[in-house]
Design goal:
alpha/beta, 4-stranded parallel β-sheet, 44% helix, globular, binds NADP nicotinamide-adenine-dinucleotide phosphate
């Protein structure tokens, strides 16, 4: 989802070579090494991951092989060729007990296998490289992937009533906005860990309500429920808004509010 939106954005200022799972598996160290050595890129953006959060619970090995070992393989190849690595990580590295947006230096403590595998990926990169940028983001939606916005719209076409979780709070983020932010961060050679999301926050229920309102689907009833009622395999943080002030200071710009980005996506 993010990768496909990144391609046209990064192509405007860079010579871009895109690779997908069909080309090679980032869990295959030799293949990653060979590919990076052959292409000899200045920057490698790793948007690949095993992102099925519930699936990760039953496929722990796969989750770690892609999200942790895969990230390690890319980092090792970048170290070998002196390439800069840009890597995507997640709010799910936190346990969600905070009452205020998480800062980059807050202590991670993931609740799920997905979060733990992504955190291990971050740690490998930090051990191996100095020239890296880890971008933590959350609640992505975009034109090229299965996402919450499309799911709500599709369900609204089939059901009169939607039940949506109201005890998890985060920041919905449009992949196009994130892609533009990544492009800017590459240009200014940002390093370290950085939070990047659209601004503001909401619960999934509030997000769904805004989607329906924006589409004029006022006849669809929406009912707030608890995470316990939904009973999904992976535990998710109750609160995981990310503090983006470091990004704002570095770039001199603020990501637009999530409602504004959603409006554009829906139009
Ligand atoms: N989606 C979110 O809400 C969210 C939130 C926070 C952070 N992130 C992070 O942001 C990044 C992009 O997420 P996204 O939503 O764009 O994910 P996505 O749509 O699931 O895209 C991930 C891509 O990685 C590919 N892939 C999976 N295993 C691979 C492997 N072993 N080798 C090479 N490619 C592999 C997938 O291929 P297949 O589709 O063929 O499996 C897919 O094309 C990820 O690092 C994710 O952890 C996402």
């Amino acid at each position: 989802m993010l990768g496909k939106d990144l391609v046209p954005i990064l192509t405007t200022e860079n010579q871009l070579l895109e690779r997908d799972l069909d080309d090679f598996d980032i869990g295959d160290q030799k293949r990653v090494q060979k590919e990076v050595e052959t292409l000899h890129p200045e920057v490698v953006v790793n948007a690949a991951a095993y992102t099925d959060v519930d699936g990760c619970e039953s496929r722990r090995e796969l989750a770690f092989s892609v999200n942790a070992e895969g990230a390690r393989n890319v980092a090792l190849a970048c170290a070998e060729t002196r390439a800069r690595m840009i890597h995507l990580s997640t709010d799910y590295v936190f346990n969600g007990h905070s009452q205020s947006p998480y800062r980059e230096e807050d202590l991670p403590n993931p609740l799920s296998v997905y979060g733990a595998s992504k955190l291990q990926g971050e740690r490998y990169i930090q051990e191996i490289l100095r020239n890296y940028l880890i971008i933590r983001t959350e609640w992505l939606y975009g034109r090229h992937g299965k996402n919450f916005v499309d799911t709500i719209l599709s369900k609204a076409g089939q059901q009169k009533e939607l039940r949506v979780v109201d005890d998890q709070r985060g920041a919905p983020t449009f992949t196009k906005d994130l892609g533009l932010a990544i492009s800017r961060l590459i240009r200014i050679q940002a390093r370290g860990i950085l939070n990047v999301t659209n601004s503001g926050s909401c619960t999934w229920f509030e997000f769904a309500r805004e989607i329906l309102k924006e589409k004029g689907l006022n006849h669809v009833q929406i009912v707030p429920i608890s995470s316990a009622e939904l009973a999904r395999p992976a535990r998710r943080p109750a609160y995981s808004a990310l503090d983006c002030r470091k990004f704002e200071k570095l770039t001199g710009s603020k990501m637009r509010p999530w409602k504004e980005a959603l409006k554009e996506y829906l139009s």
